Sequence to fold (357 residues):
Amino acid sequence: MHPGVLHRRFLNDLSSSLFSFVLPLLPTNEELHVKEEVRGLIEKLIKTIEPSARLLSFGSSCNSFGLRNSDMDLVVLIDDSEANIEPSHFVAMIADLLERETNFDVKPLPKARIPILKLNLKASTALPFGIACDIGIENRLAIENTRLLLTYATIDPARVRTLVLFLKVWAKRRRINSPYRGTLSSYGFTLMVLYYLVHVKQPPVLPNLQRIAPLRPMTEDQYTLEGKNVYFFDDVETLRNEWSSINFESVGELLIDFFRYFSHDFQFNNSVLSLRAGQLTKESKGWVNDIDVGGVNEMARDRNRLCIEDPFETTYNVARTVTKDGLYTIRGEFMRATRILTQRPDRAVLALAELCR
Ligand code: GTP
Ligand code: MG
Fold:
């Protein structure tokens, strides 16, 4: 058979294998239900301390990139502006309360840079792996970046969700998804995929939501949160009706090209990935110092080996946890993935299994 036909066949096979690979890894309805009940229960308890408090989910439980048994990210928002609550104090109070009223395993970290509370719910029949849960206070930007990710996923769920979910599983299996051990958070990998679909692919698969003008003029107040511009075009209905990509590449083709781009083309030494603005230079952001202090376990603040600009906190490098060794490993994994997908063009299922081994 002609090599071109064989290659086409492999790409089709790869796309359908990606869908079947991801499907059984999605959370079950039962899991989602139990998690929502847990959130409601904790919210009720927190309201006994501060009636104006709400407990919201963010991160993968609601950006549509959640996997089965993923942890729960929760944030307490206090609506009463008169309630003068200091986050570290509040974390300690919630911890006391949950220890008394529930059988969660509770670990408050009130002295962390962003005070949080870690909870663990033991395994049960509905939740064979239990639940790990982080509760933060007043982190409103996280709610906004969760909405941004969700809106991107909604534009083209078949390709965007499949790519991100696969990349997350791959990164976990290949052990390059451990910010505490020098590699990259899931949020960082997700931003890499979106950056690629918005700025690298020509024609683009996704529009740049932060650059589409609002339907009605907005005042600065309306798009500013904690001094940051958090505007993005979020009218999903209009997007569905008026934006359609003229890029028709399959999810398999996009995956191969994603790995190839980050193996060979992206200039890690001097470039910054910005979902908001495309490729920037480290120099223009002033992200040139690379203070790689301490051991791998130490959370250095100013590492700039890999630079991923947060969509809203633009002075913040989401990939600051990535060490020199971590970046070396991540790049090695991109190369390995490219090799496997381009040199094994017979059975896609086998290639995916090998990729995630
Ligand atoms: P899994 O937990 O692995 O399923 O992925 P996740 O999508 O929940 O991602 P992750 O746990 O890495 O991050 C959860 C949420 O926290 C993200 O959606 C962001 O809202 C927020 N977040 C995580 N890391 C950062 C960061 O470095 N900077 C900022 N501003 N927000 C972050
Ligand atoms: Mg999470």
About this structure: Residues 59-60, 70-71, 73 surround magnesium ion (ligand 2) (CB under 6 Å). The mean pLDDT is 92. The chain has two domains: 29-140, 156-206+245-355. The first strand starts at residue 53 and ends at 58.
